[in-house]
Amino acid sequence: MKRILPIVLALSAVFHSRADIEIQKMSPLNAAWPVIFGGYIKHESFWDTRQVVGTSEDQFLLYPEPIVLDSNCEDINAQGQFTSVAIQTRMRFEINGPDIKNARSKGVIEYDFFGKSGITNIIRMRHAHIILNWEKAELLAGQAYHPLYVIGVDPRTISFNTGIPLDTFARDPQVRVTYKPSEHLHLVFCASTQLDSLSDGPIGRSSSYLRNAIIPMLDFRLDTYVGKHRIGAGAHYLRIQPRLKTNTDLKTRESLNSAIAIFYSKLTWDSVDTRTKFIFYQNATDQNIIGGYAVSYVEPTTDTRKYTNLNGVAVWNDTDITKSKSVIPGWFIGFAKNIGANRPIIQSIDTNGTTEKTVYGFGTDIDYIFRIAPRVQWKINNLNFAVEIEYTRAAFGTIDCDGNVINTNPVGNTRILASLFYYL
């Protein structure tokens, strides 16, 4: 085993899901080594009633494809699909190191086979971070869940999408400090950058917009605990610089500031565990929520531009009925809505006969998304069999000069999903 561990750790460096709470069973690899191993093997089969927008064999479902009519007025996307995958299978190592200046130290490495950048079934780093823990403070440095994705107040869906695109979700390189003045109050401060979940712009998805703005993403979160209950709020700041030069080859420093606010709660009783979250968001493409931003002004001589955010709101609830410890029914229900731009937008610009799109993000032609997903889990020791029926409805339309989506045509998809987890 001592020979195998370095090989596995090396492979993990090769190369938005459910939370770490899924990794329920952890066991020492060797009594002499302070290393804990965990994870699960997951097989999943799913059926869709129409074509969908998703990634990795469409296991990660976002929303249904819009209606596209052929010459006979038949909807090309009105075609179901079925497949089975095991790419969500994951492994996790927790290395409990020595105390450092009165702080308990720990390293975490976690990976799966979900792939990235359109390539499925390759090793992908999920987490790689260091934790230093004092009595009233904790320092985390490395890649981990972004603070807007609140561990413990997260959707427990069987689907790998964990409520996306109705919830904020990303794993980012970060430095995070958690201050715990009491057991009832925790304060979180975080500075982070982008790696896998990226902002959109003139050259497509890229981390360069954030890098060129120089300032990292900044987050603050406040968590309060009363008995088994938890209530909190958070704020997020993002600054991007979409371009370094104009179309007239002049240097530009144009930028855009965006914000996200979240309010959330987790209420726990003997037989019910329910989690609720409200989100106001601007340009949250890197957090995997529909929307983005657009050009609002173009100086005709220099091509210098101003930008405006596309705003949105989202709310969801996820509940488990925990009266039985072996058979656990539950549901997810959520809604996200585009509420327009701060200023009138310019959708495209014609330059020397070439049309340049100037609305950036994803799902910018969607007015709202609604999702409801009842589920049931059957747990037997390390085995967990789960079934979920996920209905997602998206209202596609045309974005107008105010950033609102009008003349909508709603489209729905129903996914029947069956999963088998074996926890290691």
What's the short story on this structure?
With 424 residues, the chain is mainly beta. The chain is 3% helix and 55% strand.
What report would you give on this structure?
This protein has 424 residues and is mainly beta. Helices cover 3% and strands 55% of the residues. It has 2 helices and 24 strands. It has helices spanning 4-11, 208-213; strands spanning 26-28, 35-48, 52-55, 60-64, 81-85, 90-96, 104-112, 124-133, 137-145, 171-182, 185-192, 217-226, 229-240, 256-268, 272-282, 291-298, 305-321, 327-341, 348-351, 354-357, 359-362, 366-380, 383-399, 405-423. The strands form 3 sheets. A 16-stranded antiparallel barrel has the order 2-6-7-8-9-10-11-12-13-14-15-17-18-22-23-24. A two-stranded antiparallel sheet has the order 3-4. Strands 19-20 form a two-stranded antiparallel sheet. Strand 16 (291-298) and strand 17 (305-321) form a beta hairpin. The longest helix is centred in the N-terminal third of the chain and has 8 residues, at 4-11. The two termini are 16 Å apart.
- Rg measurement, Å: 22 Å
- Give the overall average pLDDT: 90
Strand order of the main beta sheet, please?
2-6-7-8-9-10-11-12-13-14-15-17-18-22-23-24
**Got a strand count?**
24
**Main structural class:** mainly beta
Shape: globular
The major sheet is characterized as:
16 strands, antiparallel, barrel
Distance between the termini: 16 Å
Query: What fraction strand?
Result: over 45%
* Total number of helices: 2
Which residues form runs of ≥5 with pLDDT under 50? 1-25
Q: What is the string of SSEs from the N terminus onward?
A: HEEEEEEEEEEEHEEEEEEEEEEEEE
Give the fraction of residues assigned to helices: under 10%
